[in-house]
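CORE FACILITY INTAKE
Project code: CF-77B
Contact: R.S. (postdoc)
Sample description: multi-component assembly, two entities in total
Requested service: structural model of the whole complex
Turnaround: standard
Below are the sequence entries exactly as provided by the requester. Do not edit them.
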Amino acid sequence: MTHLLDSAQCQRLITAALARGGDYADVFCERTVSRAVSYEEDQVKSASESARLGVGIRVVVGERTGYAYCEDLDEATLLATAARAALIAHSGPAAGSPLVERVGLPDRYGHVSPLSGVPLQERIEFLRRASRRASAADARVRWVSCSLVDNRSEVTIATSDGVFVSDDRPMLRMNVQVNAEQKGRRERGYTGGGGRQGYEYFSRRAPEALADEAVRQALTMFEAREAPAGAFPVVLAPATSGILIHEAVGHGLEADFNRKGVSAYSGKVGEQVASPLVTVIDDGTVLGDRGAVNVDDEGIVPESTTLIENGVLRGYLNDRLSARVMGVAPTGNGRREGYSKVPIPRMRVTYLAAGNDAPEDIIRSVKKGIYAVNFGGGSVDISKGDFNFHVTEGYLIEDGKITAPLRGATLIGNGPEVLRRVSRVGHDLALSDGMWTCGKDGQGCPVGQGLPTTLVDEMTVGGKG
Amino acid sequence: MSNSSHPQQMADEALALALAELKRAGVAGEAGAGRAEAWKAQIRLGEIEQVEGSTTRALRVTALAAGGRRGSASTSELSSEAVRACTAKAVELASFGDADPWVGLPPAEECGQAGGDLATDDPAYAALDRDALLQSTIRAERIALDADPRISNAHRSSVRASRAEHWYGSTDGVRVHRVGTVFGYSVTVVARDANGERQTGGYGSHARHLNELWSPDEVGREAGARAVRWYGWRTPPNGPFPVVFHHEAASDLLGTLISAISGGAVYRGSTYLANRLGTPVASDLITVVDDPLIPRASGSRPCDGEGVRSRRTTLVDAGRLNSFLVDGYAARRLSHPYTGHDGGATNVRLLPGTVAPAELLTAMGTGLLIHDLHGFGIDLVSGTYSRGVSGFWVENGIIAYPVQEATIAANLNDVLAGIRLVGNDPLPQSSISSPSLLIDGFTIASNTGTDRSRSA
């Protein structure tokens, strides 16, 4: 692994960062090259490439953080940046530990060959295949937008407790959107996939499969009736429905909210916070997933973290700062959008562990309810715990059978209440294909999520039928 | 913690070099270069929690090869070598594009900077007293914490000041420059009642000019009031009811309309309004104007992102859709007049009506007064609109109780047509802003019968 800055230089920067004292300091250097192609109307609409390079330097004193970054890597600019971060501290110099290179990181990125080995002409071909497939699928398809983005992010991290480590992170993302029209009515279908992996992705899920899925969603909506209005049982389909866990509990367990005591889950470690059927895991080790992490952005190698075990809250998602304040070990959840942002506790791949029920039995147990399959975004009010997500593909369940598709609707609930109302959990855990970006404090972060078929006894469905 | 000087090439010099390189390569094209300084701090419980300072820069180059093939590249490194490499990459990528007759540069007569001083660059930035801004934020947080005995914790308060400068040029000889300052601060506090239920209240102010920020007392009082306003909440009855969108919620709805008339969505057919230019799309009480030329306003700019001169545009005129918001590509593709919207809307105003907010409630009778909208339940293609809401249940024009954990749903087409009255209340401090609106046609849903007023 090559380092963007050498260890002697990082050591000097940490010394400069701690010149006015501090409990901790770190240096984060990042070079990202991002390549994108958009393809519409069976044409390449634009091809672009962007490159950014910068260094962020942080000093932590108690719960206070000083942060500065720069985009020049000459020594004078770097030292000036360290000096700006150091202004947060007001005592005598502190000493950092000697840096020791961390070698032998786990490899959780599923790329066999580097992204840069795939030339533009080949990338265009993946788009062409998806676009032509979607356009030819049905006469009602009026517009197909496809995009393919890959980026390679190289990072070098040095910390005042002696960690010196580099990581080389690939990310692949393909999107397909289809607009269809029937008798003046318009509908859309949208899907995406990818992860921290290379173009081998398409040998597992062909561009045509993405196109088929987007077309299927759009055409299904022509048959949709209005979603009902009011409280109903909701069966969540496997994989993408992991958005429930992300919003209803994941954010509320991020340690920054809990060390401040502002989350609905604050102060509840050891308590029963969910149905005994609920075990929630946040896992940085899922090979090739969008949320896979070899090393977090504070130099910690993450493992799998059990947040809730059989309904009992076991712990929070920690970054270094929160872990130190709360007196626990960091969990490797310190992540950042890039060198211009400070690391904060973020989810990785968050999922509800499999239960014992057969999915068909779960659906059969519902007299009248909703079967939720695909989703737009969601959000949560951390303090009260109210969350929402937008179901873009859902069906009515009538007398134990999935019947009519429903128009899109927002579903709402209170996180702790909904977790107590989880009454059946299937044995069919699946993870969503890589298309989710979590937003927090103005930072986007790639995450994964998953869920087995799950019955929530009651949620509010924001329909009008 | 800003104003550091970097030894790199200046952004405007990088721009000039990129344009020269495009010409040398024999292609048309455009380039934009920016430089921004930002200072941010976070406050919690009277203490400084985090301070950040930065200076950033970037160059973006777009090459337009024969037949309308487009390639672009960007870089945060502005050395001569990096600029040349970035330009060469854009030229190379353009060779892979397909011919598109609508790709090109805006005609020169559409380009330039609108006259008049938009006053987007506050001279007070140069002599900014950061400590005074920090103290204002701390004071606002203190006032919010003192607003109610149930408020004892804070999530985060933040303050920022920034200045961004942007240069644009094309191989047609267009050169424009714009600069803007932004100041802002906000406070978020957390309340907890006897049942242990936490509620958040946040409020803030931002402006291009430092002296237009609302006072710490105003911001703090409002943040505190918002933290406790939902206590005793209940769920409303289910069914069709009239609703009043309070002005912040109404501004959110207006933002949805703006997305639905944006040129890119129109030519893709990604909006239910794609074929509706010149036809009624809203109640005849509705007139919406985008005006980039309001001095000191947050969205004001002399030109858009491709150098098209800024102009006032009436988007909706007495309910009739009068104009889309188009960038150059969409303008050419839709045979639509240039509006200068590369980079999006500027200052969008739904023109106020004549009805006082209290009279909106009287006219509504029994229904929901909506303050907050939650979630992403908007599908512009079909017009499906379904949101989580917080607000107040109103009976016979009088506020009866707070409401949380409820939803509203309707089709956007019916929502805009169903606007029955437009308020005359002051517009919120956002670049897209609307007065309060009384709207018919929504269905309200909740888990009816939930009542937190009885368990305290």
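Facility notes:
- The radius of gyration of chain B is 25 Å.
- Residues 1-7 of chain B have pLDDT under 50 and may be disordered.
Invoice: internal transfer
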